[in-house]
Amino acid sequence: MSVSHASVHPAEDPPITEGDNVPRVRMENIEGMPGTLLGLALRFFQFLFAAASLCVMATTSDFPSVTAFCYLVAAAGLQSLWSLALAMVDVYAILVKRSLQNRQVVSLFAIGDGVTSTLTFAAACASAGITVLIDNDLNSCAQNHCVQFETSTALAFVSWFAALPSFLFNFWSLASR
Fold this sequence. Notes:
The chain is mainly α. The chain has helices spanning 37-58, 67-95, 103-137, 146-175. α1 runs antiparallel to α2 (67-95) and α3 (103-137) runs antiparallel to α4 (146-175).
């Protein structure tokens, strides 16, 4: 009786030709990265909301008496300056059709975005805690500018929500190299 046995036949590699040895091509400009329109839009919204948060908090007369509010003003100021500077770099890159995928540039953007977004988030959280303390626990909103404090804090959170994708895109780009 003839029984067939399973056997493994190794497959031969196809011969290497000139076209197969081409290095892999990376996707250069993923939307949201520096030098793209979505990246510019994220920078614009970061700047807009950080500057609005800064202006609303700075127009209250009693914000210097609370350290968390002073911290929010400083963090929102830094966030707005950083976002404005990088928005100008994005505008330049878009106008001259330049890619901003240099390792040193992406490292600078990732570190700057990480630092400024962390500071903005920490300042917004601290200000939210003080605002809740003033409003709910002390019930002294009548004597304070609670609406301005809450508005500024909310704008700082929105600025952070716009800054986080920029950091994640830059960090992802840096990590995938």
